[in-house]
Amino acid sequence: MRICLCVATVFTVMLSNSSTVLSVEHGEVEYKLKAAFMLNFARFINWPQDSGDSDKFRICIYGQNPFGNALSGIEEKTIAGHPVDIVMTEKLSDLKGCRLVFISRSEETDLRKVLQEIEGEPIVAVSDIRAFAEAGGTMEFVSRNNKLGFIVNHTKAKMNGLKINASLLGLAIEVL
């Protein structure tokens, strides 16, 4: 419990200080921050016991990779004792093995199809596409008052068998 509290505190500090980090819009710094957020999202979400590959925690980037080098070092991390595996893909069929998928803006025109592909699966769908959470995504990055934040579609998460920690929900700008 103490470790969880420490991680929550670090996550809160990171969130509250994001306005200074985000002065370079759409640049590498922005996506480093988003990569850190996604890693922390994963630490505050519980998946059903039988979901995903039991050996690795698979994070997928679907579509064009906006992260550049911002994901370097993440594969050295672990989530719930599982080493992180980063997969870049443009194939819908690859998404079923992911626990968390970032859907790139390059896929905005096919968003409905992508979300239908993972419908009902215990997969956290994250994006910075406008109105993503309302469209059925789990977590949407938003910039408000020059700060990076996120919207959580808690209803969709529960429908997909995911349990989001109350601490993470409390940090969200909005919960649907």
Structural class: alpha/beta
The H/E string reads: HHHEEEEEHEHEEHEHE
Low-confidence stretches: 1-25
What is the C-alpha radius of gyration, as a whole number of Å?
A: 15 Å
Q: What's the total number of strands? A: 10
- Estimate the global geometry from the Cα principal axes: globular
What is the count of DSSP helices, taking H or I runs of 4+ residues?
7
Q: Compute the average pLDDT.
A: 85
What proportion of the residues is helical, as a percent range?
Answer: 25-40%
Question: Strand order of the main beta sheet, please?
Answer: 3-4-2-5-6-7-8-10
Q: In angstroms, what separates the terminal alpha carbons?
A: 27 Å
Main β-sheet, in a few words? 8 strands, mixed
Sheet-strand content, in percent, reads: 15-25%
Question: Would you mind describing this structure in some detail?
Answer:
There is one protein chain. The chain has 176 residues and is an alpha/beta fold. It has helices at 2-16, 18-21, 28-43, 111-117, 132-135, 154-159, 166-171, and strands at 45-46, 57-62, 78-79, 82-89, 100-103, 124-127, 139-144, 147-152, 163-164, 174-175. Strands 3-4-2-5-6-7-8-10 form an 8-stranded mixed beta sheet, sandwiched between helices. Strands 1-9 form a two-stranded antiparallel sheet. A hairpin with a 2-residue loop joins strand 3 (78-79) and strand 4.
